[in-house]
Amino acid sequence: MRNRTRWLVALAAVGAVTFGVVPVAGAQPYKETIRFEFQNEIEDFCGEEGLAVQEHVVFESRFMANARQRDQLVYFMENQRISVVLTSDNGMVTSEETVLFKDLDVTDNGDGTLTILVMGTGNAVAFDEDGKAIARNPGQIRFEILIDDGGTPQDPSDDEFLADLGLVFGSTGRNDDFCEAVVPVLSG
Predict the structure, then answer these.
(1) How far apart are CA 140 and CA 153, in angstroms?
(2) Distance CA 20, CA 30 (A)
(3) pLDDT tens for each residue of 46-99
(4) Which of 19, 63, 170, 178 lies deepest, with the highest CB count within 10 Å?
(5) Structural contact between residues 125 and 95, judged by C-beta atoms closer than 8 angstroms
(6) Which own/partner contact pairs does 179-184 have at CB distance under 8 Å and 24+ positions apart?
(7) Cβ contact 53:45 at 8 Å
(8) How far apart are CA 172 and CA 43, in angstroms?
(9) pLDDT at 176 over 50
(10) Could you read off the pLDDT of 12-50 as tens digits, one per residue?
(11) Are 40 and 53 a contacting pair, CB within 8 Å?
């Protein structure tokens, strides 16, 4: 689920850049809300051979971009709500995730790239068919990404994601194994 979350964060950031988010220092922050749904089938779910699962995802995001006067660099903050319903022939699991992603530090590396320290904090809970919580993942992480600033560090409209530089600070909360919790429910 964390990889999906990072992918959705990147998708939302790309969306912000694509739609021309170019806040000016001292100006009002740029704010945007997006929502989309998708469905797909996952074969061999969680590495479980033969376990086919239908996935229905509802993704909602509110994000804001704001240039800080102190360094004139653009900082992003995003609130996400992700609802996932997984169904198989033998069971159903619902997952609810609420996450805040916030740029804590944006560093102009002087070579046309930016290193961004991002904090992710929130809560994810998986529920069985009876509504009983079967897995939880609250807490906070911090990770860094590398961005090609595409022009000026103050204008993210042509930025390009270069690399995930990895975790700086691992999860602070409980880390239940999602697959370990949901596969028995979906396998029947």
Answers:
(1) 27
(2) 10
(3) 999 999 999 999 999 999 998 876 778 889 999 999 999 999 999 999 999 999
(4) 63
(5) yes
(6) 179/46, 179/47, 179/48, 180/135, 181/126, 181/134, 181/135, 182/46, 182/86, 182/93, 182/126, 182/134, 182/135, 183/45, 183/46, 183/48, 183/51
(7) yes
(8) 32
(9) yes
(10) 454 444 344 445 445 678 899 999 999 999 999 999 999
(11) no
Helix or strand run (H / E) with residue 120:
strand 113-127
Judged by DSSP in three states, 6 sits in: helix
Mean pLDDT over each residue of the chain, to the nearest integer:
85
Of residues 125, 58, 60, the one with CA closest to residue 85 = 58
Tokens coding 87: 């169904």
Can you name the residues that pair with 36 across neighbouring β-strands?
Answer: 59
Residue 2, pLDDT above cutoff 60? no
pTM of the model: 0.75
**Alpha-carbon torsion, ordered 53, 121, 22, 156, to 10 deg:** -70
Instruction: Name residue 70's amino acid.
Output: R
Determine the Cα–Cα distance for residues 23 and 21; give it in Å rounded to an integer. Answer: 6
